[in-house]
Design brief:
Strand content: 25-35%
Number of helices: 3
Helix content: 10-25%
CATH architecture of the largest domain: Ribbon
Number of strands: 12
Structural class: alpha+beta
CATH superfamily of the largest domain: Umud Fragment, subunit A
Order of helices and strands: HHHEEEEEEEEEEEE
CATH class of the largest domain: Mainly Beta
Largest sheet: 10 strands, mixed
Length: 236
């Protein structure tokens, strides 16, 4: 309890941290579960999820919050703006049975291959920030640890109903069959692309699904499958 001659620790926080804390408190009271990082950013007019993440960590250090990285909406409010600790039942992490968390590990170009710093898609992945919620039916009984997501850039796959800005959900695998839509790493060029796979024996044909674009031909040794497309999420 804060007495009259003590300063409320809430007032010692930055304005941004106070706004975040107030939003979490209000959201949790209304919904019964905490907000996501992106919901906090939108409500508090913070464009960068990294900035939200930084301030949440500061609130954890100051004893206002507790975070669980393994869960969606894994934020627990420890005390209210008055500084009084919460002793009631903690706000539950929100994990609907029909929703799975999938890591959004970067972007992939659905046109010409794009140059990337390395072939490890995970270099872009912060499990505290870059996850999306997808219907479990999209995973086709797979464990969420067997899949990942990439944001599409380009229009070479529009006839496969994959457009610029869409998010593709992929199964982690290093083999595929002719006609599969796959994320491919071309190690000789340090590039990646999203295409339809065709094995022509002495060469691999990476076929766009856009009649205005030409296929890419590569040697089999210069073609590493990273994942097979399971589904598409369109952000409206």
């Amino acid at each position: 309890m804060i007495t009259s001659d003590q300063q409320n620790p809430f007032e010692e926080l930055s304005e941004r941290q106070r706004n975040i804390l107030l939003f979490i408190e209000k959201f949790s009271d209304q919904k019964g579960f905490p907000p996501t990082i992106r919901e906090i950013g939108e409500a508090c007019n913070i464009a960068s999820t990294s900035v939200v993440n930084y301030n949440l960590n500061k609130l954890v250090e100051a004893g206002w919050l507790e975070r669980t990285r393994e869960k969606s909406r894994g934020i627990r409010l420890l005390r209210r703006r008055t500084g009084v600790p919460l002793i009631e039942q903690p706000v539950r992490a929100y994990e609907p049975a029909n929703v799975a968390l999938v890591p959004l590990v970067g972007r992939i170009v659905a046109s010409e291959p794009v140059l990337l710093p390395g072939n490890d898609f995970g270099q872009y992945y912060d499990p505290d920030i870059d996850v999306i919620e997808v219907p479990r039916t999209m995973l086709r009984s797979l464990d969420p640890g067997e899949v990942f997501a990439l944001k599409v850039q380009g229009e070479s796959m529009i006839d496969a109903l994959i457009d610029d800005g869409d998010i593709v959900i992929l199964r982690k695998q290093q083999t595929c069959q002719d006609g599969d839509l796959v994320a491919v790493w071309l190690p000789d060029d340090s590039t990646t692309t999203l295409k339809e796979f065709h094995d022509e024996g002495t060469r691999i044909r990476l076929q766009p699904r856009n009649p205005n674009m030409k296929p890419i031909y590569v040697h089999p040794n210069n073609c590493q499958i990273q994942g097979k497309v399971l589904g598409v999420v369109r952000m409206l």
